[in-house]
Amino acid sequence: YQRRVRGWCELCMMLLLLLVLAGPLTAEFKSPSEECGNFCSMAMKLCTMEDQAYDSLEECHAACGSWDQAERMDIANVDSIECRQFWLDRVQTAVKATGRVPPGLCDYTAVGGGMCDASVPHRCEHYCEQLGPGGDCGAGEWNPTSQEECLTACIQFGHRGTVDDMTGDSLACRILHLNIGEQSLLKTARTEYCPHAGIESVACSDDQRSTKCAQYCDFSQDFCNSDYSRGKGDRPETLDLSLIHI
What we know:
By secondary structure, this protein is mostly helical. It contains 10 helices and no strands. The chain is globular, with a radius of gyration of 24 Å.
């Protein structure tokens, strides 16, 4: 009799344990937001095969729910759906215009995010570490003579700026150029953008400070000003670069 009672008790304990373990599995599934749903459906449709950004729709939904909220024009250095949606729209534009995805562009929509990866925290010590020869841009004219020189200069930048400022005497502007120099698919990104990440920066000065719309239009003028972008002539080699930058 005691053996049977002990057997029943062990069975009850096993059932109770199974119920506890099954609880999270039977919990109510939280559906993704409309914004995440639309983004993930678009990403799964456009970014496939070697360009695949997510293994499944569920993986994308889970990742999307963890990202930060940002402004619509935050297109770099922000771990957000707004940043990834911007680059996913560029993928769609490229597919419609050329029938293909520019190599690596779907990477910007994934976890890690490429251009949407805030890889350098907005603090002087991290900026100065990455500005050195062993940092994101490597060795170059932008390297400070010492960490002390960099830290002293950093705290004297004119203002903090916002996360993706393209101009203005700020830490934010320099980190944007640092990230583009390291992460962009543009072959000349390192030589074009890393110099502006330095302490002495032409782009990141108050002489160059402008509004977000003016910054956007300046980039558009630089990278999209061609006969093809106006609907004339053959597709130039620089079209992929314009799709990446704008």
